[in-house]
Amino acid sequence: MTLPSPALKPGPVRVKEMNPAQITAVIGNDPRLIIPIGTCEQHGPHLPLGCDTIIVEHMADDLSAEYGVLRAPTVEYGVNVDSERGFTGNASLRKKTLHRMLNDLLDSWEATGIREFILLTAHGHDPHQEALATVVTAGARVRVVDIFGVNMSDLLEGQREAMHGDEVDTSIMLYLAPHLVQPHIAQDYMMSREQLRRYRRGTLKIPKGSSGSIGRPSLASAEKGQRLYERIRSKISDRIFLAPAAEE
């Protein structure tokens, strides 16, 4: 007796793996494009520099696969906090450079039929967010999604919000890519809400007592990371992908 083959789970619809005719067919059904925007930035001694990038790439792939929406190649660099320039391997763009690059990219894609852009990022630095929020198109809708803007306080033990290389980042990385995490060398360092606000604006340097991370990575776990990731994915689905696509 021959058993029926299991149905294949659809994968992400990646622009870089498709030809123009295939992309045209997808746009004809749904003219949206997901653009994951990462960073190359330290997150403490226990996490890789591509932490933000890895998280938004996974999220972009999962959402693309679930909704059949095109997924653009990842923008690997963002605007880092100036005070982190001394960390080996860090690479940052200026705000106006990221802004101009995105303007150019969105202009190219809009000319081929994209009517809505969904910019996914996991980096809360104010100049980085401003570069995304001020992108201009001829008519297409632009939606900037800070995936850590979701309320997750009830899922955390030592924090009430996402910080940097913290309980949130470390938990999600333990869930998505545990082989890249070294939890045994994670170091906790807490800031007040006002200090965290100044740090995100770039007016406060990383204190000498911090190894680079801010928050409580020692409380991270893969199980917590799965709950956080699923919460974020569910909220983005409800607010962005289950809403009607923008009309031409």
Summarize the SSE layout with pairings:
Elements: E1 13-14, H1 20-29, E2 32-37, H2 51-67, E3 70-71, H3 95-111, E4 116-121, H4 126-133, E5 141-146, H5 167-176, H6 193-201, H7 222-241
Parallel strand pairs: 1-3, 2-3, 2-4, 4-5
Radius of gyration using CA atoms only: 19 Å
Q: What would the average pLDDT be, to the nearest integer?
A: 91
* Helix-strand topology string: EHEHEHEHEHHH
Strand fraction equals 5-15%
Which CATH-level-2 architecture? 3-Layer(aba) Sandwich
How many individual domains?
A: 1
> Largest beta sheet, briefly?
5 strands, parallel
Low-confidence blocks of residues: none
Q: Keywords for this structure?
A:
single chain, 248 residues, alpha/beta, Rossmann fold, 5-stranded parallel sheet, 7 helices, 9% strand
